[in-house]
Amino acid sequence: MGDDFYCEEVLSGKTSVNIVCETDNVLAYHHTRPFWPVHIVVIPKHHVSSLLTLEESDTPLLLELLSVVRDVAAEVMEKHGACRVLTNLGKYQDSKHLHWHVNSGEPRRK
Asked: What is 5-104's CATH number?
């Protein structure tokens, strides 16, 4: 497998996911291998390498992404009372496709 799980597996349909929210340009779904008890991933439906590679022309996409992240986070907050929202960069970013994690609970130990 390459370095973009989201394009290669999720968006291609090779890996099925439990969808939380979907718009024309954004997909939010329950993580396939959750690290937290509640672990939702929010991704753009077309390839963007990371937060740092966004261009000025990507502003509408970023606003749509953040709108979905906000809505998912609000739902998690309502159900669980707390959540985290994060994105990884550089060596912390396993899949080189912009994605946000919305999670709640204590991390699961490997």
From this structure: 3.30.428.10
